C-alpha cells in the first residue's frame, strides 16, 4: 500500500509555486493561492468618457490609499458596459505610474507599487484566506472583484464581516473594490421573498441590503447619452488614428448603437473594432 501511495504522490501534479509577493503588479486569487498575472488587459484612463465624476472620485480614493491615508472600499454599480471594471484597472495603472516615478527619484521603498488582486465572485467565501496571505506584506493591496452578486447562499454574510464588522476586520494594507450591475448586489425578488416570509419584513430587507452599505464609496454608472457615446468613439478613433471622415464615423456609430439597442463604452469599442477591421488597421 505504501508503494501505491508513493507512486500516486509522484503522479500528482506539483503544488503551484508561490509567487513573490514583493514583486509583480497584479495577481489572481485561485481560491487557495495567489498566481502572478501573466498580462494585464486594460485601457488608458483618458479613453474612458462620460464617467468623469466617477473617474476623479475613484482616482483620488486610490491615491489616498496608496499614500497610507484613510480610504474607502468602493462599489461601482450600474449600467453594463459603461467602464466599471476598466476604470478600476486604469486607475490602478495611473496611481502606480506616479508612484514608480517618484520612487525612482527618491529611492524610498515605501513608494512600492500597489498590487492588484483579482478575486472571482465564486471565491468570495475564501476571502479570509486571501487576506491572511497578504496581511503581513509590506505592500498595499487592492482586491478587486468584478461583477459581484449573490443569488443565494450565505457568502454575502462573510463578506459583510470582512469589510467592516469582523473581529479582525480588513487589514490596513488592503482595500476592496467591487463592480456590480445591481446596487445592492442581491436580486430584488430575493429581497422581496425574504421580506414576505419574515416575521419582521423590515429587518429582513435591512439584512439583505446592508452589504452594499459596508462600502463607504458608491459610484453609479448610467447609460451614455448620444453625445457621450460619440465622444467615446472619437476618443478611440484618435487614439488609433483611424482614417475616416468624422461625419461618416458618427453616422455609422449611431446606426451601430441602434442595432445593439445600447450606448456604452463596450458598444463603442466593439464598433471601433469593426471599423478598424474594415479599414485594415490593427489596434495595437
Helix-strand blueprint:
Layout: H1 2-11, E1 26-29, E2 34-36, H2 52-66, E3 74-78, H3 84-106, E4 115-119, H4 127-134, E5 141-145, H5 155-165, E6 174-180, H6 188-197, H7 201-209, E7 217-221, H8 226-239, H9 246-260, H10 265-279
Helix pairs in contact: 2-3, 6-7, 8-9, 8-10
Concise structural overview:
With 284 residues, the protein is an alpha/beta fold.
User: What average pLDDT do the residues reach?
Assistant: 83
Q: Rg to the nearest angstrom? A: 22 Å
Largest sheet: 7 strands, mixed
Low-confidence stretches: 195-205
Strand content: 5-15%
Order of adjacent strands in the largest pleated sheet:
2-1-4-5-6-3-7
Query: Roughly how much helix do the residues carry, as a percent range?
Result: 40-55%
The CATH architecture of the largest domain comes to 3-Layer(aba) Sandwich
Distance between the termini: 57 Å
Which structural class do you get from the secondary structure elements?
A: alpha/beta
Order of helices and strands: HEEHEHEHEHEHHEHHH
Amino acid at each position: 500500500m505504501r508503494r501505491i501511495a508513493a507512486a500516486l504522490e509522484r503522479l500528482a501534479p506539483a503544488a503551484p509555486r508561490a509567487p513573490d509577493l514583493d514583486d509583480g503588479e497584479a495577481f489572481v486569487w485561485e481560491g487557495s493561492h495567489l498566481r502572478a498575472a501573466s498580462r494585464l488587459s486594460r485601457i488608458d484612463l483618458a479613453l474612458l468618457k462620460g464617467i468623469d465624476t466617477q473617474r476623479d472620485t475613484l482616482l483620488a480614493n486610490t491615491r489616498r490609499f496608496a499614500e497610507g491615508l484613510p480610504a474607502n472600499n468602493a462599489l461601482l454599480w450600474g449600467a453594463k458596459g459603461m467602464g466599471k471594471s476598466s476604470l478600476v484597472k486604469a486607475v490602478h495603472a495611473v496611481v502606480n505610474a506616479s508612484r514608480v516615478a517618484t520612487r525612482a527619484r527618491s529611492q524610498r521603498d515605501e513608494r512600492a507599487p500597489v498590487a492588484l488582486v483579482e478575486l472571482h465572485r465564486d471565491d468570495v467565501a475564501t476571502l479570509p484566506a486571501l487576506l491572511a496571505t497578504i496581511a503581513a506584506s509590506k505592500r498595499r493591496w487592492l482586491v478587486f472583484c468584478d461583477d459581484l452578486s449573490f443569488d443565494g447562499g450565505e457568502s454575502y454574510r462573510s463578506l459583510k464581516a470582512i469589510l467592516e464588522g469582523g473581529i479582525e476586520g480588513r487589514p490596513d494594507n488592503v482595500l476592496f473594490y467591487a463592480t456590480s450591475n445591481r446596487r445592492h448586489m442581491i436580486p430584488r425578488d430575493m429581497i422581496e421573498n425574504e421580506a414576505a416570509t419574515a416575521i419582521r419584513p423590515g429587518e429582513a430587507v435591512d439584512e439583505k441590503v446592508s452589504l452594499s452599505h459596508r462600502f463607504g464609496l458608491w459610484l453609479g454608472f448610467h447609460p451614455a447619452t448620444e453625445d457621450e457615446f460619440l465622444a467615446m468613439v472619437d476618443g478611440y478613433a484618435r487614439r488609433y488614428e483611424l482614417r475616416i471622415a468624422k461625419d461618416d464615423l458618427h453616422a455609422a456609430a449611431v446606426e451601430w448603437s441602434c442595432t445593439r439597442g445600447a450606448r456604452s463604452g463596450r458598444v463603442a469599442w466593439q464598433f471601433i473594432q469593426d471599423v478598424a477591421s474594415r479599414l485594415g488597421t490593427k489596434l495595437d
